[in-house]
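DM from R.C. (forwarded with permission)

"hey, sorry to bug you on a friday — could you get me a structure for this? deadline for the figure draft is monday and I only need the backbone to look sensible"
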Amino acid sequence: MTTTTSPKTETPEDDSNLAAVSEVEAGIRDFVRNDVAYLRRPAPGMVPDVPLEASTEATVNSVNSLIQRVAGTSLSEIENLVTELEGLRDLLHNEGQRVQREIAGYAQLSQAAMKSTRLIADNVAQWKRATDGIRQD
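My reply, with the result:
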């Protein structure tokens, strides 16, 4: 299965993220290698060069620090996005209230215009009856 992607402009941030991801992957590989190293322990009586616990602990610390760096960047971006979305939500809420007030104002204006139109129409009808009565006399 072949997929095509449009060319994407690499940014320095993308490069640093890719480097951080590569570091995390390398750290995880090292961790797994060291974690299964006990299966390849030397025969009894042979002393390994580096104590297994110290090596494992160092690898775990290294992996943890890499994950924290990558996660820290992602978390700060998510927090910025959440803050921006909250601002947009507030803006939309305020605009919705403003539009509701405008609609209520237009409804009142429309009702006032309808009452005025009825009043004018009633007055014109009265004048017409009055002029019709004068012509008949």
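R.C.: lifesaver. The chain has a mean pLDDT of 79.
me: no worries. The helical segments are 12-35, 52-136.
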